[in-house]
Design goal:
Layout lengths: L3 H5 L13 E6 L22 E7 L11 E4 L5 E5 L2 E7 L3 E4 L3
Length: about 100
């Protein structure tokens, strides 16, 4: 039986454990449209800055799996796993946690 922590993990995060003070975050890049219905090209879009913590390293103190966080748009290492956009960054690069 899976634990609550494992149930929350995305498919990209299963079997992945960040090291030290790093966190593993997933986010979505949605296709943006202007008010007039025009699609905004990738090169003109702002990078996403909000994501969900999927896994944390053993030295992470203030974050837990499932937290919705705001992060600096140029921080971390971006990768794509199982068709999910992911980011690995240091805990210090997380700017804040969204409260419910």
């Amino acid at each position: 039986m899976a634990t609550k922590t494992e149930e929350k993990k995305s498919t990209a995060a299963k079997g992945f454990q960040p090291l030290g003070d790093r966190v593993f975050i997933t986010y979505t890049e949605e296709m943006e449209r202007t008010a007039g219905g025009i699609y905004v090209p990738e090169t003109a879009k702002e990078k996403p800055q909000r994501g969900t913590v999927e896994a944390v390293g053993k030295d992470v103190k203030n974050l837990k799996v499932g937290d919705q966080v705001l992060f600096d748009k140029y921080s971390g290492s971006k990768l794509r796993i199982d068709d999910e956009d992911c980011l690995i960054l240091k805990e210090e690069d997380v700017l804040g946690i969204f409260t419910k």
